[in-house]
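Amino acid chain
________________
===
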Amino acid sequence: MNAHANGADLPQTTYPLTPRSMPHVLLSLIRNPLEALPPEIFTKPVVFTRMGGKMRVYLAEPELIYQTLVRNSDALGKGDDVRRVLGPALGNGILTSDGAHWKWQRQSVAGAFRHEKLLELQPAMIAAAGRRRDLWLAHKNASLDLCQEMMRTTFDIIVETMMSGGDGIDVDKVERNITNFLKPTGWKFAIGLLGLPDWMPHPGKEKARAAVAFLRATLGTVIAERRRSGEERSDLVSMLLEAADPETGRMMSDEEVINNLMTFITAGHETTALGLAWTFHLLARHPDCQAKLFEEIAEVTGGGLLLAEHVGKLTYARQVFSEAMRLYPPAPIISRAVVRDFTIGAYTIPAGTIIYVPIYAVHHHADLWEDPQIFDPDRFEPEAAKNRHRYAFMPFGAGPRVCIGNGFAVMEAVAILAVLLQKFRVTGSNEPSPKPVMKVTLRPMHPLSINLIER
């Protein structure tokens, strides 16, 4: 980005706007919000547009992302888009709130995600992966829907580790309702862009409303039972029930506890499950990478069962999962509302602007990655990763609002990969990979199928 032609160093307040077609953007938002991204953001560092009466800035240059999400984080709010789409389910929880209310909620759950606490959870992760392995053994040589299989596995883990078993939650019903809630999100984005009220009817709205009611009622039952029993457990539910605002001493209401449990159940298990589904899909298409992973697992475990102390040593497994999340980041776009003016690079970004960090575009950007469409886990070898800008790869976001569960997710993913690939080789069809579709998270347009072959 260049300063004014006269050489002045003052930040610019006029912007090179990229024209957009409102009908095209609206249709893309409804069909697949990824397609609503300006195509230029895959090759340029920053794109300015004006639409729906607001300036919208798309950032792909890692340094500009750092300046925005880290150095100027206090100039940003979550914005109406996030609250419109996620607010009905997540309320004013850790993912959707701002300011002091966000801060004390995050502090309340931080202990659950400390590294030493995560190490304690590894046996439960391995056990859940083992249950999935045993189910696969009963259906060996079958074709499976990866997304469903991974959703059930990660949900099993999050219920076991964060809710001490969940008191009989119906996993399949919860999974169906999460899907029903997320399905019409494109319509909500489109309604927001047009400035229409939230009560506007749209396809899938009533089904989504019913899904939210079911999910929140299910968690309400868990909380009521925990309060009734008075039983103290070392899990996220107990942390939330005991949390107190350091400024006021106020405890969380049942509604606030539900807001945060909803956040971790929907965002926490869905994103990791999708990352794993895409990982297995890619491994099925790259037998050389799969063979290398087999070798690492055998070497680290000595041919025995995976134990908790093995997980941290599976370096190549982490590289494989990272490369899958580069190609298919589970949370493909970050959006923020600018609440006060700030400067990045040569430009002043005024209050009222909507900032987008299209992680999907950053991860596929021609200036940041060599052959960005190619699956290559060696990109994440320690030396290669060290020489890359920290914000060229950000599947868990960045800044103060970086995903609090990122360590949990990676540990969980590595454990699941290792347990399942000890017993199975996966193969897939030679059909082109399904197009990724954004429904808040990045799902495949068509089911991801693999064939299991017992090793």
